[in-house]
Q: What sequence folds into this?
């Protein structure tokens, strides 16, 4: 294993993010059916959900670093063969696996008959498979995004990022939460009719990953970002946990595109770049981290299946208080998913397409 020049701190970030994605799904799986809204157990699930919310944006930002970097020449044939095709193949393969499990093991029929449900499930995907298609879309757009990043002036780059933050993050949050009510309707009308799709979607995180990696932050800039990240975390935690305790209902501030999640995620990425990168990992530690990092794609693809199997076997949040059961179940799933991913990677010819 060649570790020369490897940015192990980002491999570590990928491993932790993978575990936290599992934690998100473990926290919400049957949460509503197991616990009442105002119980401590229910809120424990919310707490873990908030703590882990940066994980999915982290994967997108790390992808932006890799696909948009200056030293990587774009080859459309290789892009589609090595990345886009792999994402589509993995999507169909794993969707078929999930569909078989849902129909034949759980007995869930989404389209009337078992055969039609099975076929539909092969394309509709499981709850987490949206990420695979979203990532494929970003890879398809990456050659154009890369040209923009390398050709635009610093002023226009800032303009682009601010526009994405305003039209793809801040305004959608205001219009969804309907606050402040005086301007919510106005913003919604303008944003909807202007239809600025170019500034929306996951492109913001994709671009931020590249920009953060390639910008030398001053002490003042770091303090501002960390402050925004902390404020965003407190805001998210209060309106997810505190508000639901006070009002017996949750206020939806967890969508990934919302500015509070953006600032939290950016703060985490900056922390790994500026602080974790300075840790001197030993060779053995590096090998472990890089090996686990290489398994995260397969773990992501399989973790919901393993979660379903565990729940079918009676291993769910109720084994103890969710403040403990969620990380315990998540670690179990991570380990089992890692073993499965390792085995799948041993299969010749198709390994890279399914794990």
A:
């Amino acid at each position: 294993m060649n570790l020369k020049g490897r940015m192990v701190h980002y491999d570590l970030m990928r491993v932790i993010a993978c575990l936290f994605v599992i934690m998100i799904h473990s926290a919400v799986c049957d949460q509503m059916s197991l616990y009442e809204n105002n119980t401590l157990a229910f809120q424990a699930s919310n707490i873990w959900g908030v703590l882990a919310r940066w994980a999915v944006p982290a994967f997108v930002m790390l992808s932006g670093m890799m696909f948009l970097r200056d030293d990587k020449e774009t080859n459309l044939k290789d892009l589609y063969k090595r990345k886009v095709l792999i994402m589509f193949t993995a999507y169909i393969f794993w969707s078929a696996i999930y569909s078989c499990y849902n129909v034949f093991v759980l007995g869930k029929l989404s389209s009337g008959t078992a055969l039609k449900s099975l076929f539909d499930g092969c394309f509709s995907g499981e709850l987490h498979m949206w990420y695979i298609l979203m990532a494929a879309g970003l890879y398809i757009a990456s050659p154009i995004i890369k040209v923009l990043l390398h050709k635009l002036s610093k002023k226009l780059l800032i303009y682009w990022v601010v526009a994405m933050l305003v039209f793809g993050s801040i305004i959608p949050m205001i219009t969804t939460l309907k606050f402040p009510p005086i301007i919510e309707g106005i913003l919604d009308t303008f944003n909807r009719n202007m239809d600025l799709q170019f500034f929306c979607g996951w492109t913001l995180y994709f671009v931020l990953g590249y920009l953060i990696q390639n910008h030398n932050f001053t002490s003042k800039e770091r303090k501002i970002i960390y402050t925004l990240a902390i404020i965003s975390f407190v805001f998210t935690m209060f309106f997810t946990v505190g508000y639901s305790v006070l009002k017996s209902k949750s206020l939806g501030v967890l969508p990934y595109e919302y500015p509070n999640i953006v600032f939290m995620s950016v703060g985490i990425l900056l922390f790994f770049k500026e602080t974790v990168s300075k840790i001197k990992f030993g060779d053995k530690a590096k090998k472990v981290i890089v090996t686990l990092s290489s398994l995260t794609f397969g773990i992501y693809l399989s973790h919901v299946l393993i979660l379903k199997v565990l729940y079918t076997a009676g291993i769910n949040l109720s084994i103890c208080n969710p403040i403990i059961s969620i990380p315990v179940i998540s670690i179990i799933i991570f380990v089992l998913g890692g073993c499965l991913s390792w085995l799948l990677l041993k299969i010749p010819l198709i390994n890279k397409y399914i794990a």
